[in-house]
Amino acid sequence: MPRKVFVIGVGMTRFEKPGRREGWDYPAMVAESGSAALADAGIAFTDVREAYAGYVYGDSTSGQRAVYELGMTGAPIVNVNNNCATGSSALWLAARAVAGGFADCVLAVGFEKMSPGSLSEVWTDREGPLERHIGALAELRGPGAPTAPWMFAAAGREHMERYGTTAEQFARIAHKNHEHSVNNPYAQFRRAFSFDEILEAPTIAEPLTKPQCSPTSDGSAAAVLADEEFVDRHGLAGQAIEIVGQSVVTDLDGTFDGTAAALVGAHMSRTAARQVYEQAGIGPEDVDVIELHDCFSTNELLTYEALGLCGPGEGGGLIDAGETTYGGSWVVNPSGGLISKGHPLGATGLAQCAELTWQLRGAAGARQVPAAASRSGVALAHNIGLGGAAVVTAFRPAER
User: Fold this and answer.
1) How many other C-beta atoms are found inside a 10 Å radius of the C-beta of residue 274?
2) Any catalytic annotation for residue 310?
3) Which of 45, 113, 245, 332 satisfies CB 3.0 to 4.6 Å to 70 for a cystine?
C-alpha cells in the first residue's frame, strides 16, 4: 500500500531575465530556494534522505554541485532532465520515493541558468530528440523557426481553422496572466499589459505576439516532501499539502495522428489529467486553482480542453466568459504563469508546486484564490515538455 505523500516546505527565487543578477550562478540559486524550502518545513538538510535535482542546461552532476550548498551528508542526489517538464519530473520521482517507503523526507529542486533569446540546440553532431516531431509538423504546416514558438503557433492556427478561435482570444489569455503577475513578487514581469499592447506587439509566429510567449529566465524552486509519520513527528499537519494524484505520460502513438495539437502534447496532457482525476477521485469541477504550462498563450487554451475544463473547440469561449480568472469557475495561473512569471526550464514545475502550496495554505497574499484556502480546496498543476512528457499533479490540504 503506497504511503501518503505531503509537501511540507516550498521555496523559490524570483525568476529573472538571464544575467540580470550579476554573478548569480546556479549553486547560489539553489542555496536560496532550497534553504527557503527547508526553513518553511522547519527542518535541517540532515533530515533529507534523498534529493532529485532538475535542470536542462548544464553538465552532469550539476545537481550535486547545487545541492551541496545546502549540506554534504552523503544522501543520494539524482540529476533529472525531462525538457520543460523537468521540475515536475523531479517532484514525481521524489514523491515516488516517499510513497514507496524508501525515504521519509525527500527534496526536489529545480534550477536553470539560461542564455537570452530563443532556445537553441546544444548538441549539433547528433539527431535532435524533436526531429521526428519537427518533421511531422513541417509536413503538416510548412517549416518555421524559432522551433518552440513555431510549433505552438501552428497548433493555435490549427485551432483557429478548426473551431473559429480568434487571435483576440489567445491575446486575452496573455492579458489575464500579465494582470495576475502584478501581485507576484517572484515574477520576472510584474507589469500589466493592455489588451491593445498585446495585440499590437511584434509578432513572433502568427498569431503569437511577444507578450504571449514565455521568456527565458534564470531561477530556482524547491519542495520538501515527507510521509505521514514524518509530518506527525514534526507537528507539520497544519501546513502539509497532500499529493492526491500524480501522473507522468510520454508520447503516445496518437502524437503522430496528423494534428499539430497532438505534436505539442495535447494527447499526453489529456491522458495524464484523466489518470490524476481517477487517482484523486475528483473531476475538473472540483478544482479551484490551476497552474498550467502556458509557454505560449495558444498552449494555455489547448490545455483548458486537455484538462477537461471544457469540450473540444470551447477554449476560446471559456476565456471570453472570464471562467479562468478571479470570479470564474477556476483561477488559472494566479502566479502569472510562464508567460509572465518566467520559465527557467528546470524550475518551472516546482514553482507551480510552490504557488499551489501557498494557495492551499491561504498564504498567497494579494493573489489568493479564496476557494483554494478552504479545507476542501483542490489545486492542479500541469507541466509539459516536448519530446516528451506531461506531468499533472493534484494537491489538497492534509486532513487536520
Assistant:
1) 16
2) no
3) 45
